[in-house]
Amino acid sequence: MAGLVLCEPTELYNILNQVTKLSRLTEPNYLCLLDVRSKREYDESHVITARRVKKRANEYLLLESVDLECVKYCVVYDNNTSTLEIALGGEDEDNTEDRRHELVPGAAVECGRALARLTHHPICILKGGYERFSAMYHFLRTQKIIWMPQELDAFQPYPVEIMPGKIYLGNFRQACDPKIQKDLKIKAHVNVSMETGPFFVDDSDKLLHIKIEDSLEANIFPFLRHLCHFLEIHLQLGSVILVFSTLGISRSCAATMAFLMHWKEQTLKKSWAYVKKCKNNVHPNRGLVAQLSEWEKVILGDSVTDIWDPPY
């Protein structure tokens, strides 16, 4: 039995927006997203790709089409559950009839416990449920119930969230998408590529353009103090910032790690692990990794992370 863990809304947002060549939602064993609210609530709107779990005679009916033992992420949500502590028995008799007909806060935990015996990984219970998630990410709500494979192939992921509602990490296509800029309320860009995007052009207050090639010889180190200052200023102003590069896997990831090392006064190893958790295809080239190691010396006074370990 794998057990249950709470999942923050930002974690589910990042799970939904992972990408390799295509969105990872195209992978059959990547995500099983389950909605245990009433049919009326589900039909009104739900999180994209979520499937409703039905209940009969106080038992949840498992989805026959899903092999939960092979699924990497199984996320369950109800309306607003915020804790794993819930009494599953001993309800007042007056409430028993209501409980048979409608799901109450905590239904996600009840369902999760029923599923946990079938999974290899822990069942994730969405903290704050649909209410909190949909308030934060209204653009990921839908009424669509069935997703065809070609529709998932065409799904365009959003940039991943590094600091909730503050810093996002993405690629050039996402930086040029007006819908993404509007949905995420982007107010500033850090462009770590040679290309020029359509937003904030010639506006030095809202755009930091670090023009470096995607190569082992690219020198990002001289820009790191300015980068950190730019991001700090916008965090103080309450601006939402998108850090991006051409593919969003090397230069922009290195810039994001450098800022986290500065902002939290932490090691490269810890910053790397955090960004990797947010975005699974992180891959700064060896030249950038060596410069991040030098930046670690500036931040901490010594080189702590062994960059010759396999993860780097």
Automatic annotation (TrEMBL):
Database matches in PROSITE patterns: TYR_PHOSPHATASE_DUAL
InterPro entries: Dual-sp_phosphatase_cat-dom, Prot-tyrosine_phosphatase-like, Rhodanese-like_dom, Rhodanese-like_dom_sf, STY_interacting-like, TYR_PHOSPHATASE_DUAL_dom
MF GO annotations: protein phosphatase binding; protein phosphatase inhibitor activity; pseudophosphatase activity
SUPFAM superfamilies, per database record: (Phosphotyrosine protein) phosphatases II, Rhodanese/Cell cycle control phosphatase
GO biological process: negative regulation of stress granule assembly; positive regulation of intrinsic apoptotic signaling pathway
One GO term describing the cellular component: mitochondrion
One Pfam family in the UniProt entry: Rhodanese
Tyrosine-protein phosphatase domain span: 158-301
Protein name per its UniProtKB record: Serine/threonine/tyrosine-interacting-like protein 1
